[in-house]
Amino acid sequence: MNSHVVISELQPKDWQRLRDLRYAALAESPANLAGNLEDEKNFTEEKWLEILNKVTWVVATIDGKDVGLINVENLKGDFGATCWLGGLWLDPNYRGQGVARAIFDYLDANAERKDWKVQGLGVMENNPAIKTFEKFGFVKMGEPQESRGKPGHYYYRMIKAL
């Protein structure tokens, strides 16, 4: 497919796009994402706006269709992280087409301006995305941690410093 990936940050007016992407993500990859589809289906517009205002949501779009997202929270985190990435999801029909690369290129290009210079993330220990994160420069740090949202499951913390 020879399509151009467009990356943008969601604004409050885009709350329905976030909702629809989260529904798709949680339906397709419930084991790898924090959150619960049934719970999120009960969120009101006000709740979605609250979620949108808490962190930066970055969306990948191809030919007008939203095909991926990630959120970025500025914080002082483990291993010197200045931000924490969460909820990365790509529509399975668009995986392997440069969507993840476009998202991470956007994050890196805006790192200085947004204080995203040391990026951290958590990834469940059996998630095949670990290899993708390593390809983009992330390194496993410390021992696996038990998930608060999914007790009995463990995740790795990964860090990339620009």
Keywords:
7-stranded mixed beta sheet; single chain; alpha+beta; Aminopeptidase; 6 helices; globular
Structure description:
By secondary structure, the chain is of the alpha+beta class. It has one domain (5-161): Gcn5-related N-acetyltransferase (GNAT) (Aminopeptidase, 3-Layer(aba) Sandwich), CATH 3.40.630.30. Helix content is 31%, strand content 33%. The protein has 6 helices and 7 strands, in the order E-H-H-H-E-E-E-H-H-E-H-E-E. A 7-stranded mixed sheet has the order 1-2-3-4-5-7-6, with helices on both faces. Helix 1 packs across helix 3. The longest helix has 14 residues, at 15-28. The protein is globular. The model has no long low-confidence stretch (mean pLDDT 93).
Question: Layout of SSEs?
Answer:
Elements: E1 5-9, H1 15-28, H2 37-40, H3 45-54, E2 56-62, E3 65-74, E4 83-90, H4 99-109, H5 111-114, E5 118-124, H6 129-135, E6 139-146, E7 154-161
Parallel strand pairs: 4-5
Antiparallel strand pairs: 1-2, 2-3, 3-4, 5-7, 6-7
Helix pairs in contact: 1-3
Broad CATH class: Alpha Beta
Assign the CATH architecture: 3-Layer(aba) Sandwich
Separate helix tally: 6
What does the overall shape look like? globular
Number of strands: 7
> How many structural domains are formed by the residues?
1
Give a short overview.
With 162 residues, the protein is α+β, with helices and mostly antiparallel strands. It has helices at 15-28, 37-40, 45-54, 99-109, 111-114, 129-135; strands at 5-9, 56-62, 65-74, 83-90, 118-124, 139-146, 154-161.
